[in-house]
Known about the structure:
114 residues; mainly alpha; single chain
Amino acid sequence: MFDSDKRKLLSGLCHAAIFFSTAIFSVGVPIVILFVSDDPVVKDNAKEAINFHFNVWFYGVIIGVLTFITFGLLGFILIPIGYAVHWILTIMAILKILADPDQPYRYPFIFRLL
């Protein structure tokens, strides 16, 4: 059996890494945990966190292009909404992991590459 506290910590780190920054560095945490951990739930959470990073970057590019095309007008609306959604989804993931560490968290509304 796998250690529940270790599972909570590693799974939580995978999802919380997005708070470090939205740059490439933050995706390194779940990538390292994916390769280091032998716990299947932690691995599933790491994959889901990596997929979430890719989605945040993808939607960030779309918002950036729309902001550029509209000379910044849509940026005043879309950027705060984008950050709020990404923070809320991440907080939901962390709370779910802490409440039930035996189930991997699945983000809604994202594309999964892994």
